[in-house]
């Protein structure tokens, strides 16, 4: 009888991998599967793909702030108290060799101890004394972790991971009889997709609305040029309505935002090939998860300025314009295409297009973009949640894959601010 195995590729130095490590065993057990704990060298992966050793160090400041907040939020939702160790990121190669030395249940225990030491106790996992203490507590000799056999095993695991398309951690994939039978899933926020594959049906971590939640306003900043904005916009109204929240749509010029904050104009083109391939597959996975039509258009990237202005003049054409690009593959950068969509919405297309050329409408789009930047937005879709009673601080969530966090906030959850 075949056994399904969830291969969990990880490195102690990544906080997202720690978050996932606390949940993966229970996830697999719920569906009669086991976990293959696969220690790899994240730095080795980066070097193989010619990526920066510390990718976050290359991010625009606004992205770095939201990224830091996000990892604290994911940890909090998992019930974990995340604390960045002084001097992070620390060299983890010796810690990972210790993980590779251990086998079976001992590897799981050693991994948990290392994660706890680094991400909760703030200890230095590059300190051999710290590693010796953990090794001894689990019946291991630290010196054995420096053997050629262990070094070669860790390198081989890293090379194999790169060969499978791994470009970061945590990465999870389902195997059966030694063969990969599931998609490659990257990130602690993709565990529900892994579980859906094991269960044979979609599994959603989205929390249900609760009575008595404070009234909220959700402002969604978006640009039709982004496939992620399309996916997020297919869900924004549903989630806001389910939680009784007011939804405000604010189109922005994503390219102008990227230019001003120092992000590549087309981030997809700046990624290494493995990451590009994963994101292409990931978009289709999310469309299937949300149950919406989607096809990546051959005309990408698209100039969306006229379409965005049209959505300001006639908000009812917003989703039809999104679908024209991301379902039908039409170039909404062409005025004739925008005109056809407007006609299909029953609008006076010539009148709407004439308004898109007015100073007032142009100013709205520019002001929306400036407002997004001032709020710390670094991409689309971004959701800014505010309490209608004026209490608390706005919460900024970035990405269509943060719909679940949006639902938590609309229930009254106050996410941690996060710090290093």
Q: Describe it for me?
A:
With 420 residues, the chain is of the alpha+beta class. The protein folds into two domains: 4-54 and 89-199, Glutaredoxin, CATH 3.40.30; 216-410, Glutaredoxin, CATH 3.40.30. It is built from 18 helices and nine strands. A hairpin with a 2-residue loop joins strand 3 and strand 4. Helix 11 (254-261) crosses helix 17, helix 13 (305-313) packs across helix 17 (359-374) and helix 15 (335-344) packs across helix 16. The longest helix is centred in the C-terminal third of the chain and has 18 residues, at 273-290. The model has no long low-confidence stretch (mean pLDDT 97).
What would the keywords be for this entry?
alpha+beta, 420 residues, 18 helices, 2 domains, five-stranded mixed sheet
């Amino acid at each position: 009888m075949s056994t399904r195995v969830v291969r969990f590729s990880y490195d102690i130095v990544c906080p997202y991998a720690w978050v996932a490590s606390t949940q993966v065993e229970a996830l697999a057990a719920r569906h009669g599967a086991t976990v293959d704990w696969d220690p790899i060298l994240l730095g080795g992966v980066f070097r193989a793909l010619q990526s920066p050793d510390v990718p976050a160090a290359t991010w625009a400041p606004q992205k770095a702030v939201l990224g830091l907040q996000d990892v604290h939020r994911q940890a909090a939702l998992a019930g974990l108290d995340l604390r960045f160790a002084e001097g992070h990121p620390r060299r983890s190669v010796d810690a990972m060799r210790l993980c590779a030395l251990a086998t079976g249940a001992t590897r799981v225990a050693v991994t948990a101890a290392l994660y706890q030491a680094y991400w909760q106790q703030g200890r230095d996992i590059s300190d051999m004394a710290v590693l010796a203490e953990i090794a001894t507590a689990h019946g291991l000799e630290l010196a054995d972790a420096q053997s050629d056999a262990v070094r070669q095993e860790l390198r081989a695991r890293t090379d194999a991971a790169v060969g499978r398309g791994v470009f970061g951690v945590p990465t999870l994939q389902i195997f059966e009889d030694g063969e990969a039978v599931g998609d490659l899933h990257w990130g602690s926020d993709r565990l529900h997709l892994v579980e859906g594959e094991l269960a044979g049906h979609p599994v959603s971590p989205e929390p249900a609305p609760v009575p008595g939640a404070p009234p909220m306003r959700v402002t969604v900043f978006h640009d039709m040029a982004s496939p992620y904005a399309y996916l997020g916009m297919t869900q924004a109204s549903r989630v806001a309505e389910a939680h009784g929240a007011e939804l405000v749509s604010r189109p922005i010029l994503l390219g102008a935002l990227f230019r001003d904050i120092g992000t590549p104009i087309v981030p997809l083109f700046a990624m290494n090939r493995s990451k590009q391939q994963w994101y292409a597959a990931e978009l289709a996975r999310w469309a299937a998860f949300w149950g919406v039509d989607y096809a990546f258009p051959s005309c990408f990237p698209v100039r969306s300025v006229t379409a965005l202005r049209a959505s300001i003049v006639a908000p009812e054409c917003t989703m039809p314009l999104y679908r024209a690009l991301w379902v039908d593959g039409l170039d909404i950068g062409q005025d004739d295409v925008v005109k056809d969509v407007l006609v299909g919405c029953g609008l006076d297309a010539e009148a709407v297009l004439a308004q898109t050329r007015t100073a007032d409408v142009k100013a709205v789009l520019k002001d929306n973009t400036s407002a997004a930047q001032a709020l710390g937005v670094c991409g689309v879709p971004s959701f800014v949640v505010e309490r209608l009673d004026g209490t608390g601080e706005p919460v900024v969530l970035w990405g269509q894959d943060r719909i679940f966090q949006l639902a938590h906030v609309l229930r009254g959850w106050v996410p941690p601010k996060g710090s290093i």
